[in-house]
User: What shape does this take?
Amino acid sequence: MRCQPGREVSGSPLLKLFRSPQEAAPRSRNPWTWTVICRPPYFTALTLWTGPLIHELAGGVWTSNHHLRIAASSELSAPEKPIPGWLTVVPWIGWWVAEVPLYEQIMANKGWRVISKQMERPLAMTWKSQTKWRGKRGRTPIIRCDGVILRVWKRGTICRVNEGRSLRWELWNRKGRVVRTWISENPASFWMEVDKAGRVVFAENGCLYRWTSFPGGEPTLVADLNHHTFTEVPPPASATRW
Assistant: This one.
């Protein structure tokens, strides 16, 4: 089973949520999709939700330490394990679950701001539904990971531009001038953020970098993770309970 941490959960310092597509298999044995809450760095499920359809579950986002929204294309099934009374889970139902604006909410929780949104039409639509979609384009924008978002901090700005098939990251100085640009064809292979100390950190080609003196100087290598592999480690008791 492939674990795909594409739906990062922010807002909770203790818990992480993952979702994963699964190869075709009966629901009774292996579901098409599942969404899991676990306690990093361990993947042991505190609880999970499963779905029989490949796009039925699309991850979730913490809106506070006690509130979780889970994206689903239909009513959410009961969790496989009980959840504590302090946790409120709200299903985020969408007719095409992949377009639920989870990414926008996740990035907003981190201090990013949406500048523009890229509309994306569903892959398979009838002529009638296409006409209906065109009629809604002007007043109901939907964002996945496409569009332009900015992260402004005291030394400059990070700009992320996703145009569907290409992803561009830019670092601007305080005057709005581009200092450096990165272009990636694989959105999962590159990310950039500002840490709590106000330093630019980014990952590229399996390596972690830190740009301490931005906009001056150069990024420095923090760690090369290309030779690291996952090791199965039995979870401690603290990772198996809420």
About this structure: The first strand starts at residue 16 and ends at 21. Confidence is low (pLDDT under 50) at residues 1-13, 22-28, 119-144. The helical segments are 102-109, 127-136.
